[in-house]
Amino acid sequence: VYDGSHFSLPFVQEEESEEEPKLKYERLSNGVTEILQKDAASCMTVHDKFLALGTHYGKVYLLDVQGNITQKFDVSPVKINQISLDESGEHMGVCSEDGKVQVFGLYSGEEFHETFDCPIKIIAVHPHFVRSSCKQFVTGGKKLLLFERSWMNRWKSVVLHEGEGNIRSVKWRGHLIAWANNMGVKIFDIISKQRITNVPRDDISLRPDMYPCSLCWKDNVTLIIGWGTSVKVICSVKERHASEMRDLPSRYVEIVSQFETEFYVSGLAPLCDQLVVLSYVKEISEKTEREYCARPRLDIIQPLSETCEEISSDALTVRGFQENECRDYHLEYSEGESLFYIVSPRDVVVAKERDQDDHIDWLLEKKKYEEALMAAEISQKNIKRHKILDIGLAYINHLVERGDYDIAARKCQKILGKNAALWEYEVYKFKEIGQLKAISPYLPRGDPVLKPLIYEMILHEFLESDYEGFATLIREWPGDLYNNSVIVQAVRDHLKKDSQNKTLLKTLAELYTYDKNYGNALEIYLTLRHKDVFQLIHKHNLFSSIKDKIVLLMDFDSEYLHKLFKRDHHKGQRYHEKQISLYAEYDRPNLLPFLRDSTHCPLEKALEICQQRNFVEETVYLLSRMGNSRSALKMIMEELHDVDKAIEFAKEQDDGELWEDLILYSIDKPPFITGLLNNIGTHVDPILLIHRIKEGMEIPNLRDSLVKILQDYNLQILLREGCKKILVADSLSLLKKMHRTQMKGVLVDEENICESCLSPILPSDAAKPFSVVVFHCRHMFHKECLPMPSMNSAAQFCNICSAKNRGPGSAILEMKK
């Protein structure tokens, strides 16, 4: 906020809001400060290249966009009421309170000068005044006059309007002039010389000289009106249809949006599809209960049909706001750059849309560092005041201050990148707060590589408090990151206090291995009975060192091959033949699973070993796997005497000859017959078995077995009937669908051809009669191109489909004309 001579941000949010401001503000200083110390601003107009400021002492200053004075004109001893510039910025019109009007070229000399007998409140030069055909301007006091230079270089004037009080506002855009008097707003078409609308003033209780009308053109056909607390958007100055003309103007306007504001409108400007509104505010003092002038507001508003939505609202602490009236404020804007100038007697403030740097400023102020970092990365080519690295470092510091050490450490990877110096600086910061462990997983291990001291410092931290974490780092970090001998000595010192700690011993063995001290490493692994000893022996060819330790190695890893096979069936395939003997000798329960899962064991060798040891189940499996199913079944029946297993085996093989062998073997064994009767029904016709049963043979549970056979038979019948119903229903449904499809019409147009003569199916002369045959297969023929049907059958078939053995078209569509 700034007030008087103090300066900072010249706006105040009404209350703390989580929404980001839409605009930023800056005082127009330099020459403007000098001017307003002795004079007061009365009006201003804006061009893309410069500014023109009028004062109460009758001066007009041309300023650059920083507020520096480039040119000064002494126009009048009294207040300048309005300044107007053409689009080129080469011609300027000025009017003052003493009735003076001047229109002149900034680079070509004076064009017009006259003094009227009344104050001239407004002036507007033609937007294209630089053209010889557009030497026109309007002035307004008690009447609105249009001045136009004739071909004799003489100026002639025409009264466009009078009799409704002083003209207090005017805006010229394209061929349309809009002005406001005491009664309302009018629009005049300079081409047709017609006034095309009259918008009456809503609140006639307000003095028009104290609460003047604000006008601005959004584009060539859209006028925005603000008066008192009312805002109207007049859209689409449209051409009237000839049938509606009669005595009416050729154009008309529509009010598409109208809404009330909370305060009095002092100025308007468009911002895309939104409005910028400068408002004069009066409030009631809580202490004195008297009305006073409050800070003016600059609002961004989204117009709706009958209301509006406030997008943002800022209260501006401009100099002398306590003494200002509604008429003292003006809002001017530069269309090309979306710059808005808030003009008051003692201050000129520039509002502009916030850029990406401002957005990042706001995010940092709200401590939204991650969003700020993301915004900077996305817009790194457009940001000027911020650096991604600086934002990232601020983000890390914020996370550390908040106690989110792990997140802060993780972000270091992305933010610090390959900057070794910054990495080392951050590590020392983490050391100061006792959080070296947090940053350890994210330290770079190559490109860049930090000083060895950094890694040693972290390893010592873990060694003091976390043996497992220390061991993990030793495994993960390359050994050349730190001084290996220093760490070895530190581990040995700790082992003096805890000599049996397996974690430290294993880690020391790894350190010895990296240091090529394989003897000490081997000794530790053997002491720990650790499996990594085998990898160490093979990798570094230490066989000569283990001649006297073979028994020890076998003792603590007797299940090595078994575990290897469980992990990967193919990795130790060259040992599978040996494993068969080992399983048979020492671990028979795992032999059959091994034979089932291995695809590399020699079956003949396995069969020989199993037969030697009379392993029936293993032998049965091997015989069946080798294709000798009958021998396998015979062994089950003769060796195991297990009818259920024999039946299960026959089911798995699904071989009719096996069932026949099983029946023949079981026919004189009643228990086997019972088992077969209970299980055979769904695989073999039970009659084959029942016919072979000898009369008078006692069979246990025969009745129950026969009942089960009948139940199984009934179930099969039910299943077949159910399947038949489903098939019949599906067939009928598909038949109906096919019939519906074939009954549909077939499109015949000029693109189709006769499949016989290959000429277009439709004749070029549609007036001639013709006949076309269309089969359901979509092939088409001229009727005369088809062969005559045979005497035996009146049905006609598609020649193409019949030749391809796809069956003829099932029906024929014949089209005649």
Automatic annotation (TrEMBL):
It comes from Rhinopithecus bieti. The keyword Cytoplasm applies. The keyword Zinc-finger applies. CHCR repeats lie at residues 533-675. Gene3D superfamilies: Tetratricopeptide repeat domain, YVTN repeat-like/Quinoprotein amine dehydrogenase. Residues 754-802 form the RING-type domain. The gene is VPS41. SMART domains: CLH (SM00299). Keywords: Autophagy, Cytoplasm, Cytoplasmic vesicle, Endosome, Golgi apparatus, Lysosome, Membrane, Metal-binding, Protein transport, Transport, Zinc, Zinc-finger. This is Vacuolar protein sorting-associated protein 41 homolog. It is found in: Cytoplasm, Cytosol; Early endosome membrane; Endosome membrane; Late endosome membrane. Its main location: cytoplasm. One of its GO terms (cellular component) is late endosome membrane. It comes from the Eukaryota. It holds the Pfam family zf-RING_Vps41. PANTHER family: VACUOLAR PROTEIN SORTING VPS41, VACUOLAR PROTEIN SORTING-ASSOCIATED PROTEIN 41 HOMOLOG. The lineage of its organism: Eukaryota, Metazoa, Chordata, Craniata, Vertebrata. Signal peptide: none annotated. GO terms for molecular function: zinc ion binding. It is a peripheral membrane protein. Belongs to the VPS41 family. One of its GO terms (biological process) is endosomal vesicle fusion. Plays a role in vesicle-mediated protein trafficking to lysosomal compartments including the endocytic membrane transport pathways.
